[in-house]
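Renewal narrative, Specific Aim 1. Our central claim is that a sequence can be written position by position from structural information alone. The example that follows is taken directly from our test logs and has not been curated for this report. It begins with the structure tokens describing the chain, in the order in which they were read.
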């Protein structure tokens, strides 16, 4: 079970990257968006949201277990939050390489600066949901900004 938890929590081990593990996890997120969420979105936005909700609940559980294994809240090796953050960032946006790169940049900026409420969640919640929710907040901001940029260009 430990190997299963670490495989997913670390974003297929991208969280072990020696430099910028969150960025490495976000790259894995781009691949997941391209392979999983993009095709689902094209078929059914409702199905895409359902799959995301299930994945998010699973990620909360995985993150909680990984925190216990690493004995550290929101350990930098836990990057499943970045993987799903990219899915939220790109939801409803064009899945072309240039737009995915803009979304990637916006999400990374949001994840690093943690605009409110992400900062409050990051400081105040201590469990798998806390690991996931601060990135969800940053990803929602990135999604909104990306939607605005897409519509303005």
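The sequence written for that structure reads:
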């Amino acid at each position: 079970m430990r190997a299963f938890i670490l495989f997913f929590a670390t974003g297929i081990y991208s969280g072990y990257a020696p430099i910028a593990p969150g960025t490495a996890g976000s790259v894995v997120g781009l691949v997941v968006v391209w392979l999983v969420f993009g095709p689902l979105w094209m078929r059914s936005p409702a199905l895409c949201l359902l799959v995301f909700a299930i994945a998010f609940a699973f990620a909360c559980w995985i993150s909680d277990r990984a925190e216990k294994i690493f004995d550290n809240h929101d350990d930098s090796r836990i990057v499943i939050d970045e993987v799903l953050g990219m899915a939220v960032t790109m939801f409803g946006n064009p899945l072309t390489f240039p737009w995915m790169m803009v979304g990637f940049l916006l999400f990374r900026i949001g994840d690093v600066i943690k605009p409110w409420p992400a900062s409050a969640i990051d400081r105040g919640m201590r469990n798998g949901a806390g690991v996931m929710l601060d990135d969800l907040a940053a990803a929602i901001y990135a999604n909104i900004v990306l939607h605005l940029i897409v519509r303005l260009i």
